[in-house]
Amino acid sequence: MLLTLPQRCFKFLTAVRNTRVKLQLNAAVRRCCSTVQGDVRVRFAPSPTGFLHLGGLRTALYNYIFAKKYGGSFILRLEDTDQSRLVAGAAESIEDMLEWAGIPPDESPRRGGSLGPYLQSQRLNLYNQTAQQLVDSNHAYHCFCSPQRLDLLKKEALRSGQTPRYDNRCRHLTAQQVEEKLAQGVPHVIRFRLEEGVEPFQDLVFGWNHHEVAQVEGDPVVIKADGFPTYHLANIVDDHYMRISHVLRGSEWLISTSKHLLMYRALGWKPPTFGHLPLLMNKDGSKLSKRQGDIFIQSFQRDGVLPEALLDITTNCGSGFNTNQMGRRIDDLISEFNPSKITTHSALLDLEKLPEFNRIHLQHWIEDEERCRLLVKDLQGQIQQAHTAEIQDEVLQEDYIRRVLHLRKGHISSLKELASPSYSYLWVRPSLSSQQVAAVTAEAQHIASLVLKYIAERSGELAVDRLSKDLKTLAKQTKATKYREVMKLLRLALSGLQQGPSVAEMMVSLGPVEVNHRFQKLLQLSETD
Ligand code: GLU
Question: Three-class SS of residue 295?
Fold first, then answer.
């Protein structure tokens, strides 16, 4: 498309401006990150109103790697001020999941720390003191409006097509009126007086930002009628007293930040630096659903997903790194993290790729002596559960399972696969009848002896390519049985099945000792004929 001269000039100037904004932002990030070395304190502040899901894990992870990259501390604070929405077990589980994921907090409800407690319900005094400080300096006031009045206001606004907001009526009560109502014990809340003239702030990700909150909202409640603080107050009080240097949180909070900054200003506190992380969405741009229970960390854990795979996939779809590559472990994430690369657009998560991520990290685990032992234990349990009584002790031995893991690494995406029916031949010795054997060939005894001789002559492990060739040669030594029938018999002796992996592959996976055992069995069966 041909552009006119003014259009071209406009395009050029826009490009220059965008580049300048980007450069300024990068410089701001560099400045902030280079000057705060050692003083970085970041926090993950979930509400225990539900279990940890992928979105939360991602926020926690970015905070963790930010802290570790700049030699700082990562704090877990549980924001449990909405007592009516607490979910039993969620608080414990959130901390368990962070530990499971390999991003444990340095300070937390469980671990403690010098600036705790880390549970908001245990810090009520601090919020009340601060609210009083705001009331004393006329930045907050008591509001005695009844729920009925507020409801009416809301209905009227909706009827006239307006966004409901509190009309700030109690701002205008005299000191004496307030005294009287308090003395009479009229239920009340405390509201923060929103001022006009919000100062812009530079967000690490979204750049310059500012929302004239007073123009769109009524004065927000900071202490509720039950004496508990609301999120906005508790959050800034804790960030201040816990000496949080950087607030890295989901972009849904960007719009609230101006309100928070007004509170910091009213209290005379220096605010932290803010960085809002773009949302995590499905590959098609739709919202990640929590309802099906499929994005809760516990369900991934239950399904045999490795923590490294989960961290890898959540950082891979988003931003904050110079390159996107699979197979990064936490130390790689820390060293390669570059906050100036966090983009403002949503991160699209392709969960269909999770098995691929898990396959790579499962291989890393198998190659690590210590972790492999954990896998062996896990698999032992899964095999026993899947195959109950038919299991022989030999196949539950650590050495046997370890061998199988090393042979299958790079091919399997999850341990569960090994406990599934397609691998049952590894754990369950087939129970054959002499009739089954005789139905395949009358030369079973001869073939079994050939295989046993072959195995006995091989010292050490078997290899698939070599074995495939040798089996062909071996099949030629039979008189009346075709190659296909020989293979059928071998498959039967090894697995009791008609189909499955190649005979050579099964023999390699089973190893010489187990193969020997299964062909001895075949020999016995064919001798009794
Ligand atoms: N409790 C808030 C949440 O669950 C914390 C938001 C923030 O990090 O400030 O999202």
Answer: coil
pLDDT tens profile 403-462: 999 999 999 999 999 999 889 899 999 988 999 999 999 999 999 999 999 999 987 778
Q: Ligand 1 mean position to 202 CA, how many Å? A: 19
Residue 28, CB half-sphere, CA atoms under 13 Å: how many? 17
Give me the pLDDT at residue 135, please. 98
This prediction's pTM: 0.87
Say what the pLDDT of residue 324 is. 84
- Residue-wise pLDDT for 256-313, tens only, equals 999 999 999 999 999 999 999 999 998 888 888 765 567 899 999 999 999 999 999 9
CA distance 139 to 129: 14
Confidence of residue 495 (pLDDT cuts 50, 70, 90): very high
Angle at 517 between CA 513 and CA 520, to 5 degrees: 135
Which domains are present in the chain?
123-277 (3.40.50.620), 290-358 (1.10.1160.10), 368-426 (no CATH), 434-528 (1.10.10.350)
pLDDT of residue 27: 53
Our mutation pick for probing the ligand 1 site, out of 253, 258, 277, counting the most ligand atoms within 8 A of Cβ, is 253
Secondary structure class of 327 (helix, strand, coil): coil
For the cut 80, the answer to whether the pLDDT of residue 80 exceeds it is yes
List the alpha helices (DSSP H) in 250-329: 257-267, 297-302, 307-316
CA distance 170 to 382: 64
pLDDT in tens, 228-271: 999 999 999 999 999 999 999 999 999 999 999 999 999 999 99
Instruction: Please choose from 57, 79, 119, 232 the residue to mutate so as to test ligand 1's pocket, defined by most ligand atoms within 8 A of CB.
Output: 79
Q: Is residue 196 exposed (0-12), middle (13-18) or buried (19+ Cβ within 10 Å)?
A: exposed
Does the beta carbon of 47 lie inside 6 Å of ligand 1?
yes
Catalytic amino acids? 290
The finding on whether 361 has its CB within 6 A of some atom of ligand 1 is no
Ligand 1 pocket test: pick from 47, 75, 86, 242 the residue with the most ligand atoms within 8 Å of its Cβ.
47
Q: How many A from CA of 518 to the centre of ligand 1?
A: 60
Mean pLDDT of the chain: 91
**Does 245 sit in the ligand 1 pocket, CB within 6 Å?**
no
The atom of ligand 1 lying closest to the CA of 252 is 10
Ligand 1 and 58: CB distance under 6 A: no
